[in-house]
Amino acid sequence: MPALVLLGAQWGDEGKGKATDLLGGSVDYVVRYQGGNNAGHTVVVGDQKYALHLLPSGILSPGCTPVIGNGVVVDPSVLLSELSGLNERGVDTSKLLISGNAHIITPYNVTVDKVTERFLGKRKIGTTGRGIGPTYSDKINRVGIRVQDLYDESILTQKVEAALDIKNQVLTKLYNRRAIAVGQVVEELLGYAAQIEQYVADTVLVLNQALDEDKVVLFEGGQGTLLDIDHGTYPFVTSSNPTAGGACTGAGVGPTKISRVIGILKAYTTRVGAGPFPTELFDEDGEALRRIGGERGVTTGRDRRCGWFDAVIARYATRVNGLTDFFLTKLDVLTGWEQIPVCVAYEIDGKRVEELPYSQSDFHHAKPVYENLPGWSEDITKAKSFSDLPKNAQSYVKALEEMSGAPISAIGVGPGRDETIEINSFI
Ligand code: IMP
């Protein structure tokens, strides 16, 4: 029953695409369980670079079945263009499965996302503007449109009518925008139905049967732990549960089936969008991390905010996800610093605090308490085993492991598929 969850341990963009792809060859199913095309995975295969937003990264491994679970929100136009982009590059996408219970990001959800952000002004969340939050709102409000609704025109029309009833009032009366016509939305959505039909399946049944047959299933989280709607830095979060429990609800698999939970942890920290970030750097070190690490959003093209590694956050991720392992990524980016500061605790109102405060006000005031670790200058991108790393890089990894509370089982030392040191096998 090898069911693995692979998720971001920080604010997303930890390099999950590389990790999932690395495992892709030995897993039978790669499942996305939450989020939508707000995610951005960069996967490098040979000299080819793929940027995936919605599709599970397993789509690039020929033996693997990629699955979009019920917890995902799907923008059909993005789905189709991502599929055709891959087909043009010779990638076979015919094995993809999409849950009939996944919710559809409709054009009006995208509109509402954008106008709401504009309306919030300086209180905005800095969303990706892809309609993620409004689609999850509709789901919880029970006025969402599901993939299966595309195959019943009368139901679809009724549901779009219900969803637009209040939204059009808000759009016209509050936001001073034009009303959205039900017929136009229905027509657009029906236009996608036939193109998607071959992929639609009862993915809950498929995945549970696969687990019963001892197939290897990998659940791939989008975003990261600190962007979780329940456990992240609310309200500066996404609208779903990237944390491990989300894999169960977002794919319809019971918690007793999960055998391993792997947290992807960048050797430093980044964040996109608004919200607190205690170790953020505004100096040339931050600029250097951004430049060397290529820290620009795959989905939005926005520059990522950069800072030193934060062990308080890593410990928190271990706890809320029940992490069994870490995959440390982008260690090579830190090559060249004489000293590397690591945040070991916070100072809040003059007091040293070892754990992430539950209070938003406290977290907003948290100042990092740093310990300086010695750096290294040798190129580490060719390292194949832990012992190939310079002594100071080894000590950096060991220190992070000790502070973070779970073993580091793999280390990324470069962007390529083979630029990874495996310490403990994941499967
Ligand atoms: P939304 O997910 O578009 O609603 O955006 C909510 C917050 O999550 C914003 O701060 C986004 O920048 C952030 N976010 C969403 N997806 C990602 C991601 O894949 N990586 C990093 N940040 C993300």
TrEMBL record:
InterPro entries: Adenylosuccin_syn_GTP-bd (IPR018220), Adenylosuccin_syn_Lys_AS (IPR033128), Adenylosuccinate_synth_dom1 (IPR042109), Adenylosuccinate_synth_dom2 (IPR042110), Adenylosuccinate_synth_dom3 (IPR042111), Adenylosuccinate_synthetase (IPR001114), P-loop_NTPase (IPR027417). It holds the Pfam family Adenylsucc_synt. It catalyses: IMP + L-aspartate + GTP = N(6)-(1,2-dicarboxyethyl)-AMP + GDP + phosphate + 2 H(+). It comes from Streptomyces spongiae. Mg(2+) binds at D13, G40. One of its GO terms (biological process) is 'de novo' AMP biosynthetic process. SUPFAM superfamilies: P-loop containing nucleoside triphosphate hydrolases. GO terms for molecular function: adenylosuccinate synthase activity; GTP binding; magnesium ion binding. Its main location: cytoplasm. It is an enzyme of class 6 (ligase). Keywords: Cytoplasm, GTP-binding, Ligase, Magnesium, Metal-binding, Nucleotide-binding, Purine biosynthesis. It comes from the Bacteria. HAMAP family: Adenylosucc_synth. Gene3D superfamilies: Adenylosuccinate Synthetase, subunit A, domain 1 (3.40.440.10), Adenylosuccinate Synthetase, subunit A, domain 2 (1.10.300.10), Adenylosuccinate Synthetase, subunit A, domain 3 (3.90.170.10). Belongs to the adenylosuccinate synthetase family. Substrate binds at V298, T299, T300, G301, R302, D303, R304. Its EC number is 6.3.4.4. Homodimer. This is Adenylosuccinate synthetase. Plays an important role in the de novo pathway of purine nucleotide biosynthesis. Catalyzes the first committed step in the biosynthesis of AMP from IMP. Pathway: Purine metabolism; AMP biosynthesis via de novo pathway; AMP from IMP: step 1/2. The active site is at D13, H41, K139. It is found in: Cytoplasm. The lineage of its organism: Bacteria, Bacillati, Actinomycetota, Actinomycetes, Kitasatosporales.
